[in-house]
Design brief:
mainly alpha; elongated
Length: 107
């Protein structure tokens, strides 16, 4: 017999998985922009111009992704384009009691 996770555990696992995916996208963004800058520099023989441009663009893009991740779960802010999926699975603090379980419209 297999033990099934509770709905709260499923919700937390879904949010953790989505956040992990966004973290991986930060890493991929940095690698692609810096790697692209290196490749352009090699082909155009302009070292380190495009590599440095790739570093700056990668840091800006990664910073934006992290900024959006920091806003997930806030009731007063609509999620950005990168974190809409996380917002669907992340539990909102205003819908939870102190133990993390969801309330049934007590108001």
């Amino acid at each position: 017999m297999q033990i099934q996770p509770s709905p709260q555990d499923r919700e937390r696992l879904g949010a953790a998985g989505a956040a992990t995916g966004l973290g991986c996208s930060v890493v991929v963004t940095v690698i692609l922009f810096i790697g692209g800058g290196i490749l352009v520099d090699r082909s155009a023989n302009t070292t380190p111009t495009f590599t440095l441009i790739g570093v700056v663009v990668a840091l800006v893009a990664a910073g934006y992704e992290l900024y959006e991740l920091s806003r997930v779960g806030r009731a007063d802010i609509t999620p950005g384009p990168l974190t809409r999926q996380i917002a669907r699975v992340a539990p909102r603090r205003d819908r939870q009691d102190g133990r993390g379980a969801q309330r049934d419209n007590e108001e």
